[in-house]
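Thread title: Can someone regenerate the structure for this chain?

I was given the following input by a collaborator and told the matching structure tokens would be attached. They weren't. Posting the sequence so someone can regenerate them.
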Amino acid sequence: MPDVKRTVKIITEQRPNGKPSGVEGFPMRSWKISLVLINEHDGGEVPATIFEKATYKLHPTFGDRETQVIKKPPFGIKEEGWGEFDMRIIVSVIEKGGDHEFTHDLNFQQERYEAEHKITFKNPKANLLEKLKESGPVGGEENGVKSKRGDESAKKKKRSEKTVDMEKLADSLQRLGEEDLLQVVEMVHNNKTADTYTKNDVDQGEFHVDLYTLPDSLVRMLWDFCVEKLGS
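Best answer:
Regenerated them for you:
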């Protein structure tokens, strides 16, 4: 099964609470943080039920509250203080799916701000796979129906919908130098979807990708890159 990627959104809200901070020029503020997933279907927000807990590592000045473990979506914490700092947030995936750590910048520039982090799931177990379906497609299945990669009519439809000349793109990619091709591989890895087909042949030193399975945004990104390197 291909890797499954999801995007975690960290939402921070803060405002002055009127309490004395004891530090001139730095008002005391109430702040809270919560976690959600981005719905890969429509870009909305869905509960992060793929996690069993979130562990917050705050500034040492929080004393007994420096480490906080939250076990229920939206995995929110509420605190107050006058200082900005970087915290660590570790999310633990259900079904012993491992931990993912983010560094989060707590700052008071805006009353509300968001930060997004992509995470990858390799060979997720059945129960985790079901939870992942709540926020987007997983591998070769969507809405419980297995898609057929060899369906020619579907491929023809994809070809007709592309806004870039795919044959020219394929030719341009083959004319790129080695360093540029390494950048292409990185771009594909960072922006591919669950439907993207790739194969990394380490023994032969080759990287294969089906261009027709790439999202339109990535196709356009690769086209612009080729134009920049090779000219129109």
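The longest strand covers residues 4-16.
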